[in-house]
Amino acid sequence: MTQHQDATSSAITLKNAYDSHQIWKENLSRAVKAQAAIDTTVIARDDCCDLGRWLYADGQRPLWGKPEFQSLLLHHKEFHLLTGAVAEVINQKQYDLAEAYLSNDTQLAHSSNEVGEAIRRLETAIRA
Description:
mainly alpha, Four Helix Bundle (Hemerythrin (Met), subunit A), elongated, disordered N terminus
């Protein structure tokens, strides 16, 4: 496989991982509406979702030294820490507070946006 094919494959994988990553926020919203408990041990870990598995895979080793990769790793970890905290609030049955944490102008929303931006920066670096 050529370097260009590797970069294209990585970019496609990143896009798919990001799309599935957004499901975490949707799962939290559904849990609030259903007043259902969430497994915080999984949601708070940054290596359990598709994006996390991609980030920590041995195949990404050539990217580990890139600042864009490190930035994505950091923002992704923060996102999962925040989703874990929201899940804890849901499990404590503080649904109004959880809903507030899930609104558009919150640290979680900002963190999610940062993950998206970090992915775009890494995709650009991969293609360069």
